[in-house]
Structures are given as structure tokens and as C-alpha cells.
Amino acid sequence: MRVRFAPSPTGALHIGGARTALFNWLLARGKEGGELVLRIEDTDRERSTPENVEQIFEALEWLGIDSDGDPVFQSARAGRHAEVVEQLLAGGHAYRSTAGPEQVTAFKTANENRGFRGEDEGTGAVRLRVPDEGVTSVVDVVRGETRFENALQDDLVIARADGTPVYHLAVVVDDHDAGITHVVRGADHYSNTPKHVLIQQALGAVAPVYAHLPLLHGPDGKKLSKRHGAASVQELRDRGYLPEAVRNYLSLLGWGFDEATTFFTTDELQRHFSLEKVSKSPAVFDEQKLRWMNGRYLRELALDDLTARLESRTGRSGLRDAVAITQAKISTLDEFWPLARSFFEGPVDDPAAREKFLTPRSGAEALDVARAALVALPAPWAVESVEAALRQAVERSGLKSKQVLQSLRVALTGTTISPGIFETVALLGPDTSLTRIEAALDGIRGA
Q1: For a FRET experiment, which of 151, 309, 436, 440 has its CA 20 to 30 Å from that of 98?
Q2: Which residues have a Cβ under 8 Å from the Cβ of 83 and sit 6 or more positions away?
Q3: CA dihedral in degrees (367, 368, 371, 372; nearest 10)?
Q4: Lowest mean pLDDT, pick from 87-101, 122-136, 215-229
Q5: Is the predicted pLDDT of residue 229 greater than 80, yes or no?
Q6: What is the assigned CATH class of domain 226-299?
Q7: Structure confidence by residue, pLDDT tens digits, 250-277
């Protein structure tokens, strides 16, 4: 088996393209074994920039999708494409025609909307001769067989008047020359397939096995777009998703091993993936579900592994203790620092939290209760001893637990959102905790 992923470098690698790359990679690395060719279809000179090419390489590397051999650049094969155009002209399979859209429309109107047929004018664009009779059959692993009447298809333009080939010709030649056995691509390419089969027939080439993957929709049932959340692999990476979670989630967009299994290791995906279990119905990309899956992956990471990833992401060291008490609360890597920042930079400024819980009366009373309990607690502080001391103090005071603990949380972190309050107190330790409580009380009294 030899498959290919052939993105156009006109922007970042979007979610649909990443899913296509992943499915091809799973096939190539699966139980049957095979090779994955990476072909950059960079013939759009204005939009195919080196920066966009690098973005694709970067996204695939982050996802852990590797290819076999060096990437192939379609633009470097222009000579080969021109050679095939001349071969088709010389063999009578193609001709030159100056017919433009108006002539094509007029022909179809006069011939009951049958496919355009032109005459060899010796100049103009190169068109493939399409048979007047019969059908072109497309056999697709996902969609089954579809028969297209040749009489309804136009003679296909395969090269422009200046000799440069169009996409349809280039992709067929590149697949043939590379020995591609399976073409796995998005369903938006399905209408191109009969054209490609006609070119293959003219070249005497064997058609590869086709599999067109279902379209991706958002949760609202509409075509996936920016409004549904992250639109590219880079955006998912930058929002703090793990590549292994993204691989797992993308694999489920149009494929499933059974009705019950959701979580797969990469090895399991490679063993179980098959085109026969790909659905033809549109798949739904829901970033909330991805967040849920990512959270599960984060919680199952070894503490040292997660710490290393977060230290690399934040550019900080010494985060292990803070990671340990936040790991159960985060769904993405990005959610760590807002929870942990106050441990390293002091309380954040959250006026709403301060106004609600650090009030002159109830706030001060609550902090006095907490301070008294902690001052009497021998060092070093452990989570269990901190919890016991504070709960006993709350019970003796007659105050509500939420009043004391939330006031303490705001005094220590500046906000109402933090890791567990007992873990937070223990991590900050006696000196920092008591200093911050005193500062909060001074602020209340000064107000």
C-alpha cells in the first residue's frame, strides 16, 4: 500500500486536512504496512508561500505524522506534466481549443445540456477528449460505485493555453508516477474523480483505490468554519491541546472501531483503523468534546511528563508542586497558568472577588478566623493538617464554611478560582500564607 497526503500550502493546515493526513498515516503505519508520500501541491504561485509550507511541516510534526522519503513539490514536476500533455496530444487523446465559457454554454444550450465537445483549432487550451458514449465508473471504498454518463461531461481542460497543466492533470500524473495505490481524500474532491479516471484511461494507467472521507461539520450541522472554534492545527496547539488527544479525537471524525470505544492509544489506532469502517455521513467537530478528551489525557499524564510540558510552554522551572495540585482541574495546558500564577507572582487583581469576599465586616471576620487557625499550626504544613485546622476553626466560629474559605482563597490568590484551598495553603506555606492574609486584612482596614 502506498498512500499520499497532498496539501496545498495556501494557509495553515486546517482540521479537515489534518484528519485526511491522519487517516492516510494510520493506513501506512497500520497492520498491512505501507508508505506515506507527502506531496506539496504548490502550483498556486501567489498563495503557495515558503511560510505556508513550513506551517504544514510544523503541524504534521506536532501531530506526530511522519512521511516516507523527502517531500515532493508539485512545482518541481512541471517538465513531467508538460511531457504528458504532449503525449496526450500526440496520441489523439487531447486537442487544443480556444473555446471559452460563452462557447461552452452555447454548445450545451444547443445540445440539451450535453457535455461540451470542441474541435481541434491548433491553438488555445488543451482539452481531453471525453467519449460520447458509455459511462465512467468510480468505485469508492466509502461511497460504493457511482456511474457517470460520459455524454454529460465536458471535454476536460487539462492544460492552459501557455502549456501549464491544470490540477486534474498534475494530480493524476503525480499519483501514477509515485505508484500511489490508495487515494484517501476529502469528499469535496469526489466530483473530480470521474475526471481523473478519464485521464487515467487516456494514459493507460490503472486507477488507484479511492476513499473519500466525509465532510466535517460544526455542532450546528453547518460546514466547519472559524466560527466553530479552532480552525487549524496550530490553533489547537496554541490553545494547549495535546497532540495525542488531538490524534485520538480526529480519528473519530468519520471512523469508529465499535460503538463503545472512545479512547485509543496511537498503537491501537494503527492496529484497528480501516477504510471499511469510515462513514459517508458528515462528521461533527465539537471543540467542547475535544476539551473533555484532552482533559482526560492531561489527568492521565505522569506528573513529571506534564510538568516538563508546562515548563517548556511557560518558559519557567520549578513548577512541579503547582502542577501536582492543578492537574485534576485543567482541560488544556493553557488553563494551568491562570490557576498557578498567584503562587509565583502574588495575588492577581480581581476587583469583583475582592468586593464580594474581602469586605470590612464579614471578610475581616473570616480572615481572622483563618489566620488564628494557621498561626497555631506547627510547620511544616501538610494538606491534611491544614484542612483539619481550618475546618475545626470554621466549626468553632459559627461562620459558614464558604465565607471563611472563599475569603481566604481571595486573600491568598486574589481570585475565587484556584486549586483546592487546602492544597493552596500548604503549597504557599506559613510565611507566604500569613503574609498575604495580613496584607488582605490591612487592605480591608485601610478601606
Answers
A1: 151
A2: none
A3: -150
A4: 215-229
A5: no
A6: mainly alpha
A7: 999 999 999 889 999 999 999 999 999 9
In the block, residue with C-alpha cell 496584607: 439
Specify whether the CB–CB gap between 83 and 91 falls below 8 A: no
**H helices present in 204-331, as ranges:** 233-238, 243-251, 266-272, 287-300, 303-314, 320-326
pLDDT-based confidence at 439, cuts 50/70/90?
very high
CATH of 351-446, one of 1.10.10.350, 3.30.70.1120, 3.20.20.60, 1.10.390.10: 1.10.10.350
Do residues 185 and 20 lie in contact, with contact meaning Cβ atoms separated by under 8 Å?
Answer: yes
Q: Domain spans of the chain?
A: 226-299, 302-334, 351-446
For the stretch 274-333, pLDDT in tens is 999 999 999 999 999 999 999 999 999 999 999 999 999 999 999 999 999 999 999 999
Q: What nine digits make up the cell of 179? A: 505508484
Describe the chain by its helix, strand, coil percentages, rounded to 5. Answer: 55, 15, 35
226 belongs to the catalytic site: yes
* DSSP string for residues in 334-396: GGHHHHHHHHHH-----HHHHHHHS-TTHHHHHHHHHHHHHHTSPSSP-HHHHHHHHHHHHHH
Q: Hey, is 97 helix, strand or coil?
A: strand
Please give the Cα distance from 230 to 235 (Å, whole number). Answer: 6
Dihedral Cα 199, 202, 205, 208, nearest 10 deg: 30
pLDDT in tens, 397-412: 999 999 999 999 999 9
**Angle subtended by helix axes 383-397 and 421-446, to nearest 10:** 50
Annotated catalytic residue within 31, 222, 223, 226: 226
Rounded Cα gap, residues 15 and 232, in angstroms: 5
Q: How far is CA 401 from CA 284, 385, 395, in A?
A: 43, 17, 8
Amino acid of residue 434: L
